[in-house]
Amino acid sequence: SRCPTLRQHPRYVAAKKNTPVYFICHSMESDRMQWYKMTEDSEEFYKLDRNTSRYSIERKDNFINFTIFRIAFEDNGIYVCDRKNLTEEKKRPHMCGTELRVMGHGNIQQVQNRNTLKDAIIIIQSILLVIFVSVPILLFLDKVSDGILSSGNVPSFTTAGLEVEQMATYEDITPFRDMKAKWTVGEHPGEE
Hints:
By secondary structure, the protein is α+β, with helices and mostly antiparallel strands. It has helices at 86-89, 108-151, 182-185; strands at residues 7-9, 12-16, 21-26, 33-38, 45-48, 55-59, 63-68, 77-83, 98-103. A hairpin with a 6-residue loop joins strand 4 and strand 5.
């Protein structure tokens, strides 16, 4: 499963449906090499050894080109350049291939629906983030304030600085007595 002494590129291709795709395999023994296709869902692999109406294989001195003229969804898979006759020898190709992903065309409505869904997910994630960050902080602050007040270290803010014994209650207020001032009886405030 090691990569052989060859260079294959690109390593990953994502292209739109109906577009051409090119793979190149550089090898000193190009006449002994061949292209294979493996699918993700299956252990099977297929040899690609001759030109068809959908793809072409071109051999040169030091490389083998593989071209798919118009890719379709069934072209999804991994394309590997490896030794010839692997199927006859019941061996698997190496895992250093090129993965092809065929992307579909979407209409305007599908794109708008996807964008609306993405926006909704972002808003929901933002709300959940605020909740999951603020609730623990508020609970922590509540526990800290309860701990300080219950330990008696901080006096209540309504009676701060006042002793309970020094505060006058309603019962301690004397009733109003109608008394005449001394100076109205005969004394003047300026007289001694």
